[in-house]
Amino acid sequence: MRVDKDYIRAKQDRLTEQIITMPASTHILVTGGAGYIGSHTALALLQAGFDVTVIDNLSNSSDESLKRVARIAGKAPRFVKADIRDREQLNAVFGMQPVNAVIHFAGLKAVGESVQVPLRYYDNNVAGTLRLCEAMAEHGVFTLVFSSSATVYGDPATVPIREDQPLGTPTNPYGRSKLMIEQMLTDLAASDARWHVALLRYFNPVGAHESGLMGEDPNGIPNNLLPYIAQVAAGKLRELSVFGNDYPTADGTGVRDYIHVVDLAEGHLSALNALKARPGVSVWNLGTGQGYSVLEMIRAFELASGKTIPFRIAPRRAGDIAMCFADASRAEIELGWRARRRLKAMMEDTWRWQAGNPEGYRTKP
Ligand code: NAD
Ligand code: UD1
Question: Of 40, 42, 144, 281, which has the fewest Cβ atoms less than 10 A away?
């Protein structure tokens, strides 16, 4: 697809204007806003002048993330500790102050755990989203931005992956819960023209806020590559297992599209803005369009941190695919958004966060 740079630049200028002039009364409800991506998005919203309420049950986070948001933004989001499956609590939140739109991050995301306790995943993710949509409709709120995942493409036949490529079969209940939610929201929007829904398919979110005050704070041993590497660099874990070096990729290790969490957060603001003129369901990949292998990630982290990352080659991880990276042009054309931060910034920001907060948000500031 040809990308017209002047057109995109003009759109970006307009977008910046719109965000800056957003009336202070635009109130966004952020579910799961104490978590990794939600907290960075809450910060970006506050900095852009939105009024923000976070609802989170803190099952995989702490409210310390929101204290850090307040420290950086100079103002705090309103925080309600509540579960999105709890109808009464949702009604209370929607009843407090009119909500203009919801950005919905709340959910469980551990792939391995979802295989062990699938019902917990379907309840939290699918039933949670259903309850949320019911409450939204009841309170006249019809704009929803949903955190989907590139996992809905399954093992893609071709890369880069375009949004109109056929969806695949996710290999685990977590992935299937995302696919079910996408289908549920598509049915909902088809049934009632008042809905404006964005399905944002994230590729691999990494990195941390450049202040070093906010970042990813996984519970226990990390499942994902970059938090694992960061903990090896910090001496918390002995070595990295590289899951397979016999994939059909340049160096045999898995290739992914890593996207800086602050770029990702900004993508939500762009989606929110675009949704005003887009009834129905809109689907956007949020990725960089660039794939990196596990070995490239190790080398880049070593360069950024000055640390050596010991690793060994281990068997492939069940459910893993060889290559996954986005065709990011639809978001660039339709949202005027693209990821700007490069691999170096992703690594440096991750290391600043890890080195400054060895116990994550439990570290005393
Ligand atoms: P996270 O676990 O850091 O954040 C999710 C937040 O939701 C947590 O703060 C948790 O306490 C909260 N939560 C969970 N269930 C809840 C409930 N029933 N009610 C209220 N709050 C609840 O995860 P994240 O990495 O920030 O991911 C945010 C969203 O993006 C998730 O939906 C995830 O599936 C999706 N996603 C994440 C990735 C990734 O790699 N991080 C990739 C693709 C999609
Ligand atoms: C994983 C999930 C996916 C989820 C995504 C973001 C699986 C099978 N998939 O994707 O559903 O949407 O996280 O949360 O869990 N790697 C290692 N050693 C490690 C960790 C990872 O070599 O210790 C490799 C993997 O094989 C992969 C790459 O690093 O090639 C990235 O892994 P990871 O960060 O877990 O993300 P995904 O596999 O893309």
Answer: 281
Tell me which residue has its CA closest to atom 22 in ligand 2.
Answer: 242
In the structure, which protein residues have their CB atom closer than 6 angstroms to any atom of ligand 1? Answer: 32, 34-38, 56-61, 83-85, 105-109, 124, 128, 147, 149, 202, 205
Domains contained in the chain, number: 1
Per-block average pLDDT, block size 10, for the chain (365 residues)?
37 41 77 98 98 98 98 98 98 96 98 97 98 98 98 96 95 96 98 98 98 97 97 98 98 98 98 97 98 98 98 97 98 98 98 97 84
62 burial level (CB within 10 Å; 0-12, 13-18, 19+): middle
CATH number for 262: 3.40.50.720
Q: Which of 121, 122, 153, 174 is catalytic?
A: 174
Residue 191 exposure: Cα atoms within 13 Å on the Cβ side: 9
Task: State the residue range of the domain holding 66.
Answer: 5-206+258-289+326-340
Both tokens of residue 102? 């919801």
